[in-house]
Amino acid sequence: MKKRISIEQGIFISLIIFTIMAIFIPGKGPDSLIVALLSVATFLFGIFGAYILGDRNKRLVEIKETLRKDDSNFIDLYRLSVVFGKNVQKKIQKHIDNYFISTIDHKLIDYNLSAKYFLKLFDFVVKLKPKNEQQTEVYTNMINIIDQANENRKHLSVLIKNVMARFKWYTLIALWFVLMFSLFYINQNTFFSIVITILLSSVSVIFLLIVRDLDSLLWREQKWIWDPLDQVFRELNLLPYYGEIIIKSERTKLKKGSKIRVAHYPNKYPNFKGKKVKIVKI
Question: Distance between CA 4 and CA 246 in Å, rounded?
Fold first, then answer.
């Protein structure tokens, strides 16, 4: 698996590369045409970049809010189901677990592929037969919850599929190249000029990496995916579940001393045949 360059790694790499370039590639100093080009590129990069950053951040916030509503829905559904007896509650717990496991096994962009497990949960809840007044009242609440969860699932599928169009990436990167060319062209090779060139170049790379993480929904995912999921599993009286690839790529930080389920995938994604799940203590 190709490892993603983190923002911290990107900062380190860009500082080294741009330091070498700024010192050993002599610029030609100020030029009226290049200065004008730099001004226009900086303005467009700033305006276009701010729009993209705001749009991607808004999408991520909406996804987080929808997921937290879903967490509450599934916990409420599990707790309310005890009115129908421990056997029914266990089955609902299993359906919810299967659904969560499927969403974790699949890449986030393939979130919709977990729909079949949700629909099994949906059908099971709908087919429950209330036998008394208390069960009838709880059943009505459960139907409302599962309907809301279904709407949330559809909304999440749309939000997750809403990735940045390629032309936006091409435009942003093209402006970045113009910006870099202009900066290094007017570099006067003085200490001040070298420092400014290095800092501005590195900051622009950091900006691109932040946009990348926001668009791919990897921005601070520990806080909005893994920590809440860990808590939800435990409130459902289940051990948290992680794909082995998630742990190896260091996309999550696990709490020492806790027990979790770890899935090993022997085949290439999305073939989950032969998947093995074991319980480990961190």
Answer: 12
